[in-house]
Amino acid sequence: MIAQNKFTLSGTISEAKSNETLIGVSILFPEINSGTVTNEYGFYSITLPEGNYNVVISYLGFEDINETIDLTRNRTNNYSLTEKLETLDEVLIQEDVERVSIRKPEMSVNKLKVQTIKQIPVVLGEADVIKAITLLPGVTNAGEGASGFNVRGGAADQNLILLDEATIFNSSHLFGFFSVFNP
Fold first, then answer.
1. Of 37, 76, 73, 41, which Cα lies nearest the Cα of 57?
2. Which of 65, 96, 146, 183 is at a distance of 20 to 30 A from 135, taking alpha carbons?
3. How high is the pLDDT of residue 150?
4. 160, 168 in Cβ contact below 8 A?
5. Are 72 and 50 in contact (CB under 8 A)?
6. Separation of alpha carbons 129 and 9, rounded Å
7. Range 165-175 burial, b when 16+ CB lie within 10 A, else e
Protein backbone atom coordinates (compact mmCIF):
# COMPACT_ATOMS: atom_id res chain seq x y z
CA MET A 1 0.00 0.00 0.00
CA ILE A 2 1.36 3.40 -0.98
CA ALA A 3 1.13 6.14 1.62
CA GLN A 4 -0.06 9.45 0.25
CA ASN A 5 1.28 12.65 1.77
CA LYS A 6 -1.28 15.20 2.90
CA PHE A 7 -0.64 18.92 3.10
CA THR A 8 -2.58 21.88 4.45
CA LEU A 9 -3.56 24.96 2.49
CA SER A 10 -4.55 27.85 4.75
CA GLY A 11 -4.72 31.62 4.82
CA THR A 12 -7.04 34.59 5.11
CA ILE A 13 -9.34 36.22 2.60
CA SER A 14 -10.01 39.93 2.77
CA GLU A 15 -11.65 42.73 0.80
CA ALA A 16 -9.18 44.52 -1.50
CA LYS A 17 -10.18 48.14 -0.70
CA SER A 18 -10.56 48.06 3.08
CA ASN A 19 -8.42 44.97 3.81
CA GLU A 20 -11.27 43.78 6.07
CA THR A 21 -11.53 40.00 6.39
CA LEU A 22 -14.58 38.33 4.85
CA ILE A 23 -16.77 35.75 6.59
CA GLY A 24 -18.21 32.77 4.69
CA VAL A 25 -16.10 32.95 1.52
CA SER A 26 -16.26 29.66 -0.44
CA ILE A 27 -12.99 27.93 -1.31
CA LEU A 28 -13.81 25.10 -3.73
CA PHE A 29 -11.71 22.38 -5.36
CA PRO A 30 -13.94 21.25 -8.27
CA GLU A 31 -11.81 18.23 -9.33
CA ILE A 32 -12.27 16.47 -6.00
CA ASN A 33 -15.65 18.01 -5.15
CA SER A 34 -14.39 19.37 -1.86
CA GLY A 35 -13.99 22.74 -0.23
CA THR A 36 -14.29 24.92 2.83
CA VAL A 37 -15.44 28.38 3.94
CA THR A 38 -13.78 31.15 5.91
CA ASN A 39 -14.59 31.53 9.59
CA GLU A 40 -15.52 34.73 11.45
CA TYR A 41 -11.88 35.90 11.23
CA GLY A 42 -11.66 35.36 7.46
CA PHE A 43 -9.38 32.34 7.99
CA TYR A 44 -9.61 29.09 6.04
CA SER A 45 -7.76 25.79 6.25
CA ILE A 46 -8.10 22.54 4.35
CA THR A 47 -5.94 19.40 4.27
CA LEU A 48 -5.65 17.61 0.93
CA PRO A 49 -3.52 14.87 -0.64
CA GLU A 50 -0.41 16.02 -2.50
CA GLY A 51 -1.08 17.23 -6.06
CA ASN A 52 -2.03 20.05 -8.41
CA TYR A 53 -5.45 21.57 -7.79
CA ASN A 54 -7.63 24.20 -9.37
CA VAL A 55 -9.02 26.39 -6.58
CA VAL A 56 -12.08 28.62 -7.03
CA ILE A 57 -12.62 31.34 -4.44
CA SER A 58 -16.05 32.96 -4.58
CA TYR A 59 -18.13 35.34 -2.51
CA LEU A 60 -21.40 37.06 -3.32
CA GLY A 61 -20.80 40.54 -4.73
CA PHE A 62 -17.10 39.95 -5.42
CA GLU A 63 -15.05 38.78 -8.41
CA ASP A 64 -14.18 35.06 -8.36
CA ILE A 65 -10.56 33.97 -8.20
CA ASN A 66 -9.52 30.88 -10.21
CA GLU A 67 -6.01 29.65 -9.51
CA THR A 68 -3.98 26.48 -9.90
CA ILE A 69 -1.87 25.54 -6.90
CA ASP A 70 0.83 22.91 -6.52
CA LEU A 71 0.29 21.37 -3.11
CA THR A 72 3.63 19.65 -2.39
CA ARG A 73 4.09 21.23 1.03
CA ASN A 74 2.04 23.11 3.62
CA ARG A 75 1.11 26.48 2.13
CA THR A 76 -0.31 29.76 3.35
CA ASN A 77 -2.10 31.71 0.61
CA ASN A 78 -3.82 35.00 1.43
CA TYR A 79 -6.28 36.41 -1.10
CA SER A 80 -7.90 39.81 -1.63
CA LEU A 81 -11.26 39.95 -3.39
CA THR A 82 -12.40 42.94 -5.43
CA GLU A 83 -15.99 44.11 -5.55
CA LYS A 84 -18.02 43.11 -8.60
CA LEU A 85 -20.57 45.68 -9.70
CA GLU A 86 -23.42 44.47 -11.87
CA THR A 87 -26.13 46.49 -13.53
CA LEU A 88 -29.38 44.60 -13.31
CA ASP A 89 -32.25 44.82 -15.76
CA GLU A 90 -35.35 46.61 -14.59
CA VAL A 91 -38.04 44.65 -12.80
CA LEU A 92 -41.60 45.27 -13.94
CA ILE A 93 -44.40 44.29 -11.59
CA GLN A 94 -47.91 44.09 -12.97
CA GLU A 95 -51.13 43.38 -11.17
CA ASP A 96 -53.79 40.96 -12.39
CA VAL A 97 -56.43 41.67 -9.79
CA GLU A 98 -59.32 44.09 -9.81
CA ARG A 99 -58.69 47.59 -8.58
CA VAL A 100 -59.63 47.93 -4.94
CA SER A 101 -61.00 51.23 -3.71
CA ILE A 102 -59.11 52.32 -0.63
CA ARG A 103 -61.86 54.82 0.17
CA LYS A 104 -64.42 52.02 0.52
CA PRO A 105 -62.61 48.94 1.85
CA GLU A 106 -64.48 45.64 1.75
CA MET A 107 -63.24 42.91 4.02
CA SER A 108 -63.83 39.26 3.13
CA VAL A 109 -66.05 39.77 0.10
CA ASN A 110 -66.90 36.74 -2.03
CA LYS A 111 -68.72 37.24 -5.30
CA LEU A 112 -70.59 34.43 -7.05
CA LYS A 113 -71.31 34.32 -10.77
CA VAL A 114 -74.71 33.23 -12.05
CA GLN A 115 -73.11 30.48 -14.16
CA THR A 116 -71.54 28.99 -11.02
CA ILE A 117 -74.83 29.07 -9.12
CA LYS A 118 -76.73 27.38 -11.96
CA GLN A 119 -74.22 24.49 -12.04
CA ILE A 120 -74.97 23.49 -8.43
CA PRO A 121 -77.52 20.65 -7.98
CA VAL A 122 -80.90 22.03 -6.87
CA VAL A 123 -84.01 20.94 -4.98
CA LEU A 124 -87.38 21.25 -6.77
CA GLY A 125 -85.67 22.67 -9.88
CA GLU A 126 -84.98 26.10 -8.38
CA ALA A 127 -81.39 27.44 -8.17
CA ASP A 128 -80.65 28.73 -4.67
CA VAL A 129 -78.14 31.51 -4.04
CA ILE A 130 -78.04 30.90 -0.28
CA LYS A 131 -77.21 27.19 -0.77
CA ALA A 132 -74.43 28.24 -3.16
CA ILE A 133 -72.98 30.50 -0.46
CA THR A 134 -72.65 27.52 1.91
CA LEU A 135 -70.15 25.99 -0.54
CA LEU A 136 -67.70 28.88 -0.04
CA PRO A 137 -64.72 28.43 2.31
CA GLY A 138 -65.52 29.16 5.97
CA VAL A 139 -69.30 29.03 5.45
CA THR A 140 -71.52 26.34 7.03
CA ASN A 141 -75.23 25.65 7.10
CA ALA A 142 -77.04 27.03 10.17
CA GLY A 143 -78.39 23.55 10.92
CA GLU A 144 -81.18 21.13 10.00
CA GLY A 145 -84.54 22.86 9.72
CA ALA A 146 -82.99 26.31 10.14
CA SER A 147 -82.57 28.86 7.42
CA GLY A 148 -79.39 30.88 7.01
CA PHE A 149 -75.71 30.14 7.27
CA ASN A 150 -72.77 30.71 9.60
CA VAL A 151 -69.60 32.45 8.43
CA ARG A 152 -66.35 31.60 10.25
CA GLY A 153 -68.11 30.49 13.41
CA GLY A 154 -70.44 33.49 13.69
CA ALA A 155 -74.20 33.26 14.13
CA ALA A 156 -76.69 33.42 11.25
CA ASP A 157 -77.87 36.88 12.36
CA GLN A 158 -74.34 38.32 12.08
CA ASN A 159 -74.28 38.16 8.26
CA LEU A 160 -75.03 41.18 6.10
CA ILE A 161 -76.89 40.13 2.95
CA LEU A 162 -77.27 42.78 0.25
CA LEU A 163 -79.14 42.80 -3.05
CA ASP A 164 -78.18 45.80 -5.19
CA GLU A 165 -76.93 47.49 -1.99
CA ALA A 166 -80.30 46.99 -0.24
CA THR A 167 -80.27 45.02 3.02
CA ILE A 168 -82.14 41.67 3.03
CA PHE A 169 -83.23 40.78 6.56
CA ASN A 170 -84.78 37.37 5.86
CA SER A 171 -83.13 35.61 2.94
CA SER A 172 -85.27 32.45 2.79
CA HIS A 173 -88.83 31.14 3.07
CA LEU A 174 -90.36 27.85 4.24
CA PHE A 175 -87.55 26.86 6.64
CA GLY A 176 -84.82 27.51 4.08
CA PHE A 177 -86.30 25.53 1.17
CA PHE A 178 -86.94 28.61 -0.98
CA SER A 179 -84.70 31.61 -1.42
CA VAL A 180 -85.87 35.19 -1.91
CA PHE A 181 -83.29 35.56 -4.69
CA ASN A 182 -84.15 34.73 -8.28
CA PRO A 183 -80.96 33.93 -10.16
1. 37
2. 96
3. 81
4. no
5. yes
6. 75
7. eeeeeebbeee
Going along the chain from its start, the domains and CATH numbers come out as 6-81 (2.60.40.1120), 114-179 (no CATH)
Secondary structure of the chain as H, E, C letters: CCCCCEEEEEEEEEECCCCCECCCCEEEECCCCEEEECCCCCEEEEEEECEEEEEEEECCCECCEEEEEEECCCEECCEEECECCCCCCCCCCCCCCCCCCCCCCCCCCCCCCHHHHHCCCCECCECCHHHHHCCCCCEEECCCCCCCEEECCCCHHHCCCEECCEECCCCEECCCCEECCCC
pTM of the full structure: 0.47
Type of residue numbered 120: I
Mean pLDDT of the chain: 81
